[in-house]
Design brief:
8 strands, mainly beta, four-stranded mixed β-sheet, 106 residues, 2 helices, binds zinc ion, 36% strand, 11% helix
């Protein structure tokens, strides 16, 4: 059964839909609290799954800088540009082994 959550901020009023009960979620737009309501299929929703934040640890292959980054599924990428040295490859720690292998081929 799907539930919808409405943002309590009247000027925002975002509707989030989810198929599981979620505790302690906030509006992704204005961070206001949201209230659960019975699901209404005729209203426009934002899927909770598409705004859910994931945490991924990244490490720079050049300067060894590490950081944990919050991102949605859509924003995820295996490699970014290192925010510390602005030059190195900033790689998802779970994928880093394959990058190190590629680099040591020659
Ligand atoms: Zn809001
Ligand atoms: Zn770096």
């Amino acid at each position: 059964m799907r539930t919808q959550y409405r943002c309590m901020e009247k000027t925002c009023g975002i509707l989030i839909s989810t198929n599981k009960e979620k505790d302690g979620i906030n509006c992704p737009k204005c961070k206001a609290p949201v209230m659960p309501e019975p699901y209404d299929p005729n209203e426009e929703h934002i899927s909770y799954e598409s705004i859910k934040k994931y945490m991924t640890g990244y490490k720079c292959l050049k300067c060894n800088y590490t950081e944990v980054i919050n991102h949605t599924k859509k924003e995820y990428s295996e490699v970014k540009v290192c925010p510390n040295c602005r030059d190195g490859a900033f790689v998802d720690k779970w994928k880093i082994l394959s990058y190190i292998k590629e680099r040591s081929v020659c």
